[in-house]
Amino acid sequence: MCPLNSKYRLQWQEMKVPLHPPAWSKKEHAYACLNILTAGAFSGDKRKELQEELKRKFGNRKIVLTSSGRSAIHLALKALKIQEGDEIILPSICCPAVLVPILQNKATPVFADINLEIQLDHQSVESIVSPKTKAILVPHLFGGAAPMKDLERLAKEKNIGLIDDAAQSFGLEISEKPLGSFGTSGIIAFGIGKPISSWYGGAWIAPLYESTTPDLSEFLPKIREAKALLSFATSRAWRNWWPLVREIDLDLEKVEVPPLSQASQIGSLASWLALSLLKRENLLTECRKKNAKYLEALLDLTQLFTWPQRHHENIYTKLVACLKDPGHKTVDLDTIQNKWRMLLSGLRQKGFELAPPYLPLHLLCSRNSIPFRSEDLKNTENLWYKMVLLPVDPPLRHQSLEELALALPKILQQVKI
User: How far apart are CA 316 and CA 166, in angstroms?
Assistant: First the structure.
């Protein structure tokens, strides 16, 4: 029997579908725990090795490792010499974290619409470029790809920067060119829920002509890896992942665990985990694709969802579904947020943890009195409250996805999103 008081037991239950379970092998989990117990997070330095591997993947571009994808965006903006009042174009539907470095650089976000593939729409971008526009920030969403060739052409015509944010689509290629290598510079991330999920970290893929790295000492967060790892390991998410770890081992190759030594530099363990996952990147991608295809087929039987258009390859960090009938005629931010809280809470009680949908950034900026600019956001306004982000992480088993497909319609009926 659980020794905790009953009100805390829910945190310890074995989730059928935990939120963002990492595709770590048993040996990788064991090594992470060993580092916690022995303070081995300061042993060895795998950062140089990770830099060399990323250089190989991105055509010998300069690689600067960072603590997060957000920090990498800081680098990209600093390299473009963004100043107060400059405008940065980005989609209104994307991870809110990308907004932070824009605001910290005192630039003005300008929100463009998405297309029916749930990616940045290049025609919308073209319509809102102004003399103040200094860069287009392109986050590829949910494992898909934005129309980079059209956006590159536009950026060159207007002589503005283009930041290729492949945090959610690392490993995807367009015409045999990896995302992250288009435009002025690129960024990738190794955080939770990313294609290569260490537990934190990222990288700035600098332009070929960049000979110096901007000084980020004033604003880059200083992360002590042992402290970050200890906090991560004691979280509810870690505890919920362990049932999956006991049963599943995606590591088809022998993992060589580096020896512990007495001295190390910050970031070594996160770099080692990223390197280890990169060795089986293709396997992890195939697992996500199979899970997405299987879950989509199951949900097609419910006739409750439609699916975004797909004209390009997708590596599925999330399976995006759109509700056919949201159950209401008015779109109010508070109402939608409350209904989503009810839905996610109901699913969690049944053992399923889903990520909440992205709220449109133009609505969040308006609510918080943050200066911004936008024009016609027709697709954003029509789709954001209908989107459901479904998990397809490699460790998830088909049985768990079947149970999710059965539970989701019942709780949707109760909440009526």
Answer: 13
